[in-house]
Design brief:
2 copies of one chain form a homodimer.
Chain A lengths: L2 H4 L2 H18 L4 H8 L3 H9 L5 H10 L4 H6 L7 H6 L18
Chain B binds a DNA duplex (30 and 30 nucleotides) through helix 4.
Chain lengths: 106, 106
DNA sequence: TGATAACCGGTAACTATGTGCCTATTAGAT
DNA sequence: ATCTAATAGGCACATAGTTACCGGTTATCA
């Protein structure tokens, strides 16, 4: 591990790119085929793999092309609500709730 | 589940956005604080959460702000090489390998 | 070792996203 | 029911990513 400790935005993009590339290689797909399957240009794929900047759409298309959409599940889990909450709340919160005011300290 | 079955690029972006929003709410963070912490504008965060298009950089910054970088680990695992391969290959493949030619069918 | 496909990176034109600002809606607390 | 902060989205301009094309490098096969 250790890699995630850096966590500067650019480093993270490069890290993600490297991993996607390894994922692609493990699928034995070349850039041309992958880009084609994803419906993007080879250059966009290269930029993604090099951590040189991409869009979320490009990322998702590539994940799909690599048949790794399960990664999305893990990126942000479907429901991360506390089971306890479910018992009390009929519907999930739409906003963050903050106490309205401090006690006016009388 | 089921959600991932649709897998049209736009649907996926919206799905990802919804999940990120739920993640943020589960952290009890509002958009302003989150955007600030991530170093992006509130509008960019709104676009991300609404699945209206974002950059990978924005996504990663938000994940970091939500302290959910572990999601990246799972998105694309650090090393997805088959243990068996490790025994034979001194270094991981840099390119996809394809057989050069068919047998000229003599 | 030689051949060649896979990979890499630059540019220019186009398109999409980010930012800042502004107004409207509304969930949730009182 | 009322109040208000959180959320939502439009617009104009700045910035960043995508595409298509190019020539150069190099891993890997033969």
């Amino acid at each position: 591990m250790a890699t995630l400790a850096f966590s500067a935005p650019n480093e993270l993009q490069e890290l993600l790119g490297e991993r996607l590339k390894r994922l692609r290689l493990s699928r034995n797909l070349d850039q041309r085929t992958t880009a084609e399957k994803a419906g993007i240009s080879e250059k966009a794929l290269r930029n993604l793999e090099a951590g040189r900047g991409s869009t979320v759409e490009t990322l998702l298309r590539v994940l799909k092309a690599l048949e790794h959409l399960r990664g999305l599940d893990m990126l942000a889990p479907e429901a991360s609500v506390n089971p306890l909450e479910l018992l009390r709340q009929p519907k999930p919160p739409q906003r963050v709730r903050r106490p309205r005011k401090q006690n006016p300290a009388g």
